[in-house]
């Protein structure tokens, strides 16, 4: 899972300095985690996102943006609380933002609902 700088974000995701309307540059659905190193819930989310990136490898791109290192990006997206997760469909439709910690099952539901991609691994639920 790669951490994007502001310049990398503009090159690979969306150049908000040149475009007025949303125009996604990627080719696969993308999840971007806006985080900070000092944030406890952000640290808890790290392993969950690593698992999501592993399970959906080749189907979804997963990136992180450090809001301390890239405050301009945080401002552009109106990030007021972290973690904040940006779900970007590949079809060019508007991205969806979710704030707060999301468990693995929540990512599976969001990926199915927003991207139309079913979880590649089934989960066993014991009662």
Describe it for me?
- This protein is an alpha/beta fold and 127 residues long.
- It has a single domain (2-115), classed as Glutaredoxin (3-Layer(aba) Sandwich).
- It has four helices and five strands, in the order βαβαβαββα.
- Strand 2 (30-35), helix 2 and strand 3 form a beta-alpha-beta unit.
- The model has no long low-confidence stretch (mean pLDDT 92).
* Percentage of residues in DSSP E strands: 15-25%
Helix count equals: 4
> Radius of gyration from the CA trace?
14 Å
First-to-last CA distance: 34 Å
Task: For this entry, give a set of tags.
127 residues, alpha/beta, globular, 18% strand, Glutaredoxin, 32% helix
Question: Strands, helices and their partners?
Answer:
Elements: E1 2-3, H1 6-12, E2 30-35, H2 40-55, E3 61-66, H3 71-76, E4 84-88, E5 96-99, H4 104-115
């Amino acid at each position: 899972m790669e951490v994007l700088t502001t310049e990398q974000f503009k090159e690979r995701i969306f150049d908000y300095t040149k475009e007025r309307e949303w125009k996604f540059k990627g080719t696969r659905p993308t999840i971007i985690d806006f985080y900070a190193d000092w944030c406890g819930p952000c640290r808890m989310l790290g392993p969950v996102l690593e698992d999501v990136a592993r399970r959906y490898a080749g189907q979804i791109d997963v990136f992180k943006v450090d809001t301390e290192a890239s405050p301009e990006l945080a401002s552009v997206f109106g990030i007021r609380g972290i973690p904040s997760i940006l779900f970007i469909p590949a079809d060019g439709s508007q991205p969806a933002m979710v704030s707060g910690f999301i468990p693995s099952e929540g990512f599976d539901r969001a990926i199915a609902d927003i991207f139309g991609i079913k979880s590649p691994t089934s989960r066993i639920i014991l009662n």
